[in-house]
Structures are given as structure tokens and as C-alpha cells.
Amino acid sequence: MILALVVVLFSGLGAAPALCQTEVSPVYVYEFTSRWCTGCRCLKPITEKIIARHKDFVRLIHVDMDDPNMSDLVARSGVQAIPALVVQDRYGRTLKVLVGLQQGLTLDRLLDHYATTASIAQPQ
């Protein structure tokens, strides 16, 4: 596996870049949560199970809304309600934002769709 420093732009949610140490992948799922959030705790095992099913092309990145080290990323993302899942392509384009406690089927179908369109076009 090749690790790379990927510049991820929250193009649909803000204009500033965020840096994350991640594997190069066609799709990234940012999971915005907090320790005190009951919905976040309920969603976490569902999200991890679904991401594991799509592990060949999806990378999950946990973002704790209360972590001071994440405050810049949280501010740039524009996420104000949790739990929230932000799905982006490798070029930083936001493909989908899911807010609130989601059924696993919603995320699973969404990722199935991006699995079939994994060759997302490079921005020009």
C-alpha cells in the first residue's frame, strides 16, 4: 500500500484545503462525530461495517468535532450537525453529505453506486 499526503478540499462545503495522511483511494468518507453524541455512537459500527465491505475503494476518516486538533477541519467543512458523513472523491469534490443517524442501507447503496463509477473523472 502506498501512503500519500493528500490535499482534500471541501469544495462543496468550503474553500479551504485540509491535510490528511491517507491512502490514495477513489472515495473518502469523513465521519464527523463527538464522544457525547448518542446517534454518533449508534452510527459508528454501522459505518465501519459498510466501509469494510467497500474497503478496496473507500477510506474512512474519523473527525471528532470536539478535538481541538480537528477544529480547523471542522470549521472548513461547514458541518454543524452530527452525526454527519461527507463523501468526497480523490480530487476533493464533495459527492454527498448525509446528516443525522442514517440507515446502513443508505450508505451501502451510495457506496455501491460509487463502486460502479469508481473512475470518477479528474477535474479540469
Account of the protein in words:
The protein has a four-stranded mixed beta sheet with strand order 4-3-5-6, covered by helices on one side. It has a two-stranded antiparallel sheet with strand order 1-2. The longest helix is centred in the middle third of the chain and has 16 residues, at 38-53. The protein is globular, with a radius of gyration of 14 Å. It contains three helices and six strands; from the N terminus they run βββαβαββα. With 124 residues, it is α+β, with helices and mostly antiparallel strands. It starts with a strand and ends in an 8-residue tail after the last helix. Helices cover 29% and strands 32% of the residues. It has a single domain (26-116), classed as Glutaredoxin (3-Layer(aba) Sandwich), CATH 3.40.30.10. Helix 1 packs parallel to helix 3.
Number of strands: 6
How would the global form be characterised?
Answer: globular
Q: How does the helix and strand content classify structurally? A: alpha+beta
Supply the CATH superfamily name.
Glutaredoxin
- The level 1 CATH classification is Alpha Beta
User: Within the CATH hierarchy, at the fold level, what is the topology?
Assistant: Glutaredoxin
Instruction: Please indicate the percent range of residues in DSSP E strands (runs of 2 or more).
Output: 25-35%
Largest sheet: 4 strands, mixed
Fraction of residues in helix: 25-40%
User: What count of helical segments does DSSP give?
Assistant: 3
* Residue runs with pLDDT of under 50 for 5 or more positions: 1-22
Number of domains: 1
The CATH architecture can be given as 3-Layer(aba) Sandwich
Return Rg in Å.
14 Å
H-E order:
EEEHEHEEH
Mean pLDDT: 77
Spatial strand sequence of the major β-sheet: 4-3-5-6
